[in-house]
Amino acid sequence: MKVTTRLAMLSLAMGLGCAPQTAELSPADVAAIQHRFDEVARHVSAKDHSAWASDFTQDAAFMFANTPTVLGRAAIQKWGEAGPQIASLTFSDVQIHGGGTSAWGTSAYMLKVEGVSNDDTGKQLVVFQRQPDGSWLVLAASVSSDLPPPRPPRK
């Protein structure tokens, strides 16, 4: 191996070793993010679309199963107002990871929709961003139903 190649590799290794490490989430951060999950469930179940939308950043992305992506807090609120009439939403198996100003959580969910006999169960991936005031808001959420997708009408 050439000396210049060795020096370049050594420099890269030293640079990576000296890169600042992202602090892990504190217990308070994990509790705050868990609280955000709880608040989302409470807001959705109460049909408080404005409060639910305030759980997201201004430029958030919401990707609900079998629907187009919704971008921005105002559009998320409108989607909630026009979307399925939710009777209740609960989360289980919440797992939270991350560090610094970013975190992500996964969970299972159960969604009861008014007038629909089948409960919707599924999973989600949620990305959180620490705000300047230290709170955590949803930057992106992707919801995936365990139910089969709707079938096209027969012709």
Compact overview of the structure:
With 155 residues, this protein is α+β, with helices and mostly antiparallel strands. The protein has helices spanning 3-18, 27-45, 49-53, 73-82, and strands spanning 56-63, 70-71, 86-99, 102-113, 120-130, 136-145.
How would you describe this structure to a colleague?
With 155 residues, the chain is an alpha+beta fold. Helix content is 32%, strand content 37%. The protein has a six-stranded mixed β-sheet, covered by helices on one side. Strand 3 and strand 4 (102-113) form a beta hairpin. Residues 3-17 have low confidence and may be disordered.
The percentage of residues in β strands lies in 35-45%
Lateral arrangement of strands in the main beta sheet: 2-1-6-5-4-3
Shape: globular
- What is the straight-line distance between the termini? 67 Å
Tell me the series of helices and strands, N- to C-terminal: HHHEEHEEEE
Helix content: 25-40%
* Number of separate helices: 4
What's the β-strand tally?
6
Flag low-confidence runs. 3-17
Look at the helices and sheets and give the structural class: alpha+beta
Rg calc: 20 Å
Please, what is the average pLDDT? 88
